[in-house]
Specification:
alpha/beta
């Protein structure tokens, strides 16, 4: 998920990679709109200006890719128009698609929206299947952007394979394993093992600390590691009967009742404060989360955090976007070539070096800047290897048009169980009532 740095469900923080070592930056991005202008601008000399409309942080400017592209194609200038919050960006995108004006030559689409766009707006986007080789991406990624007739409306940018971030010093004080391989072994049986580890932690937990930050984050990881989540293959909402939703909900309720969680809504001020005070012992950790942790934990906890593989045998994915080319643009050919270049292995690796978001193009995994990447703040965790291994075991999930609405509503009610003591039965009823009204 790609959100602003100050809140919401898609938290990402800039990170910088140096050759084979990844280090998170402390920069907070609040959105960096480029110069306004005509997205279809061209002059009598054949010079073209392409507008890339996106949200949050895609990392292209930070990696210097737009300048590099201009050097390779002197007649093309790329300007980025960024909306800080995806929740503001998406309604505007729909309005522009409906009106046929104001669109970028290239536009970003969040993974939580891709199914709805594929189902309702595919005809308005260029088919990229003849430009990109879909086999170059992790298989489930490009299928998310593929319409029923085989057209591919988006090229995958990044993904968010989940790991487990944990505080070695707090685990040691609670007499839990601290070596990343030992931690991975302790939770190898799945998220139930993670709960058991939390119960052990609580017995000797340092005062004022919590085993996990949020039961809703754990819930999201449980559901995201399953092929069936909120919808079935026919597009029918099945969240009430979904095995992964039931498992995630029950585990979240158990964590709340046993007070294993701090009940901290991620990216909000109490969550940031808890990290700063060193109160969180572990959390679900998609690739982009590490830089969030470093930013808010600060220098005092450098080397005290580590990263282990996620619980269970299947990994989860949280986050990722696509680049699409609206058919209405005046420079569709040039925009399509730009998308192909931006999502190629070398460019995805450059973005990983610059801001720490993990590539979806498998070709990047064998490049040295990805394969040998480590995070000094997290005890030199070999994140290139960890994330690549996790990416290979992420199941091909069925996405639905209102996945985001369902997930966010359920997460809110999990927070109510943690923070207000709402009973699981009432919380579930409140969630389902709200969801049914929202999705019809």
């Amino acid at each position: 998920m790609r959100i602003t740095r100050t809140g919401g469900g898609r938290g990402r923080r800039a990170a910088a990679v140096t050759t084979t070592v990844l280090t998170a930056s402390a920069l907070l991005l609040t959105g960096c709109s480029s110069d306004d202008g005509d997205s279809d601008a061209s002059d009598s000399n054949g010079n073209i200006t392409l507008k890339v409309a996106d949200f949050g942080q895609f990392g292209y400017k930070e990696a210097g890719l737009f300048d590099q592209y201009h050097k390779l194609h002197p007649n093309i200038t790329v300007k980025e128009e960024t909306t800080a919050n995806e929740q503001d960006y998406y309604p505007k995108l729909l309005q522009q698609l409906n009106s046929g004006s104001g669109l970028g030559d290239v536009t970003g689409i969040e993974v939580g929206r891709i199914k709805e766009v594929v189902d309702t707006q595919a005809a308005k986007f260029t088919d990229l299947s003849k430009t990109i080789n879909v086999a170059d991406w992790v298989s489930w990624k490009e299928k998310q952007a593929t319409a029923s007739d085989g057209t591919v409306i988006g090229a995958g940018t990044d993904i968010g394979p989940m790991s487990l971030c944990y505080r070695k010093d707090l685990f040691q004080k609670a007499h839990l394993p601290t070596d990343r391989e030992a931690v991975a072994t302790a939770v190898a049986g799945g998220w139930e093992d993670y709960i058991k580890l939390g119960e052990q932690y609580k017995k000797e937990a340092p005062a004022g600390t919590f085993f996990m930050d949020s039961a809703s984050a754990m819930y999201n990881a449980v559901v995201s590691s399953s092929a069936q989540q909120y919808y079935d293959a026919d597009g029918k909402p099945v969240y009430k009967d979904s095995a992964s939703v039931k498992q995630g909900w029950n585990l979240a309720a158990e964590a709340a009742s046993k007070k294993l969680s701090g009940g901290l809504a991620q990216f909000q001020d109490p969550w940031k404060a808890a990290l700063r005070k060193g109160q969180v012992a572990s959390m679900v950790c998609p690739a982009w989360m590490a830089a969030q942790i470093q930013t808010y934990s600060g220098d005092d906890f450098k080397g005290k955090w580590d990263i282990a593989r996620a619980p269970g045998t299947t990994a989860a994915n949280w986050g990722g976007s696509f680049l699409a080319v609206p058919k209405s643009g005046k420079h569709v050919k040039e925009a399509t070539e730009l998308v192909k270049w931006l999502t190629a292995p070398e460019q995805q690796a450059a973005v990983f070096k610059a801001v720490g978001v993990f590539p979806s193009n498998k070709g990047a995994y064998d490049l040295a800047s990805v394969k040998t990447a480590k995070l000094p703040y997290f005890s030199d965790a070999p994140i290139g290897q960890i994330y690549a291994d996790e990416a290979k075991s992420i199941p091909e999930a069925v996405l639905g048009a209102k996945d985001g609405v369902i997930k966010d509503t359920i997460s809110t009610q999990i927070n109510n169980m943690e923070q207000r003591g709402t009973s699981p039965d009432k919380a579930w009823k409140d969630a389902t009532d709200t969801i049914d009204k929202a999705i019809g």
